[in-house]
Design a protein that fits this description.
Length: 466
């Protein structure tokens, strides 16, 4: 069968949040003829195997914690059965499927043509798409956006390594593991470990160093690591894995070494959370000569330009360092404004982007860490304000049941401009959003001080630091 030929102003490869936001704005707001291509489910990582189902699961874990803590407040709460993982997964899956449908409806509303298939470059202006029915579509586009995102890094090359699942596989688990081993020290591993533990799974977390979340401020890394140990997560420090055995009854034996020496642990599930890589394997990107960095990410400038004039990239596939859905959406919309809306300088400012880790407790971070600030401005030009305390929520609990709250505000120069803020504790995810606006506007410590505290809250500590 001869291929179908199409032409368009804007071809977006990848149906994740960033690509769809850019395609919809280009077509719906500016009238560009746009085509979007996706070979999996619309919404990308965030909607299907990331932020959305993760936050739903985190909410379930938080409810489990609340039930446990209710006794301290005088409640007698008896659960009549264990957490119903199969029921929960069924409802979560149904919600995600509904979101997929909403994304497709929104494309139609903004007159973006949607093709479900796998794209590969023929040249810098031409892409062929193999549809689900094996029909081939050839698309000639004036401008092409690569927004294909990433996927979990493969399991390490050790005997039996492929017996483990990755972060995508977490959302496919039909039943709750009684015992799980998670390998990784980034936010994905830490979030999964916290959720599993709170929901009653015996959780073993294997990390390569003495702390996890090591790209965050040291306060965050050290205190959240200590809190996981306090809660009872089995933390294997300075660890490596040598072999995974299939025990034949649905269980695995993971052989490892850690700070205590050699050992093994039998688990129901092994989850590798050891990073993510760009999803470029099927794209035939080499034919375009688009430049990539050593990790395989597409090199882009502040305007999402690649080294090829009509090819652009954004989101997790590019080298900007912020693998966050709102970043991809914002970059995609601004790119459409620039390419089709006549706004020549439209681009995303990648400075002071807030981010959150849905750990237990939650973590919020914006701007420079303390080591980064000292390196950039010099020790003599940095002043750091700290506050560690017990949130009032824990006032009714025994000492061993109290969780930590710690805040750090990093200021630079004589005017003490806030260049970094790092918080951990109850509601840190919600607290950070408002402070993020202030910091993005250039707030100083004096601005914080002038804001009257809301009492009694944890957040008031941020505006009363001395």
């Amino acid at each position: 069968m001869a291929p179908i030929h199409k032409e368009c102003d804007y071809l977006v490869i990848g149906g994740g949040s960033g690509g769809l936001a850019s395609a919809r704005r280009a077509s719906g707001m500016y009238g560009a003829k746009a085509i979007a291509i996706e070979n999996k489910r619309l919404g990308g990582t965030c909607v299907n195997v990331g932020c959305v189902p993760k936050k739903i699961t985190w909410s379930a874990a938080s409810i489990a914690e609340t039930i446990k803590e209710a006794k301290a407040y005088g409640f007698s709460v008896d659960t009549t059965a264990p957490f119903d993982w199969p029921m929960f997964k069924k409802k979560r899956d149904a919600y995600i499927k509904r979101l997929n449908g909403i994304y497709e409806k929104n494309l139609k509303n903004d007159k973006v043509e949607y093709l479900h298939g796998t794209a590969s470059f023929v040249d810098t202006h031409t892409v062929k798409v193999l549809l689900d029915d094996n029909t081939e579509v050839s698309i000639k586009a004036k401008k092409i956006l690569v927004a294909v995102g990433g996927h979990p890094a493969p399991a390490p090359n050790i005997p039996g390594g492929k017996l483990g699942i990755n972060s995508d596989g977490f959302f496919d688990l039909e039943t709750q593991p009684k015992k799980v081993a998670i390998v990784g020290a980034g936010y994905i591993a830490v979030e999964f470990a916290g959720m599993f533990h709170a929901l009653g799974t015996e959780t073993h977390l294997f990390i390569r160093h003495d702390t996890f979340l090591r790209t965050f401020d040291p306060m965050v890394s050290e205190k959240v690591t200590a809190e996981y140990e306090r809660q009872g997560v089995h933390l294997h420090k300075s660890s490596s894995q040598s072999k995974v055995e299939d025990l034949g009854d649905g269980r695995l034996r993971v052989h490892y070494t850690d700070s205590n020496g050699a050992g093994s642990v039998e688990v129901d599930t092994l989850l590798w959370a050891i990073g993510r890589t760009p999803e470029l394997e099927k794209l035939n990107l080499g034919v375009t000569n688009v430049a990539q960095n050593a990790q395989g990410h597409i090199k882009t400038d502040d305007y999402q330009n690649t080294n090829v004039e009509n090819i652009f990239a954004l989101g997790d596939v590019c080298d900007r360092g912020y693998e966050l859905t709102p970043v991809a959406i914002a970059a995609g919309r601004r790119l459409a404004d620039r390419l089709f809306g006549g706004q020549a300088d439209a681009h995303l400012d990648y400075n002071l982007i807030p981010s959150v880790v849905f750990s237990h407790p939650t973590v919020g971070s914006i701007g420079l860490t303390e080591p980064q600030a000292r390196k950039q401005y010099g020790d003599e030009n940095i002043k750091v304000y700290n506050s560690s305390f017990t949130a009032m929520y824990y006032s009714m609990m025994e000492a061993e049941e109290k969780g930590p709250t710690s805040y750090k505000v990093i200021c630079a120069g004589k005017e003490e401009k806030v260049v970094g803020m790092h918080i951990l504790g109850i509601a840190s995810d919600e607290i950070l959003q408002g402070f993020g606006v202030a910091i993005k506007m250039g707030a100083t410590k004096a601005d914080f001080d002038r804001c009257v505290a809301i009492h009694p809250t944890s957040a008031e500590e941020i505006v009363t630091m001395k």
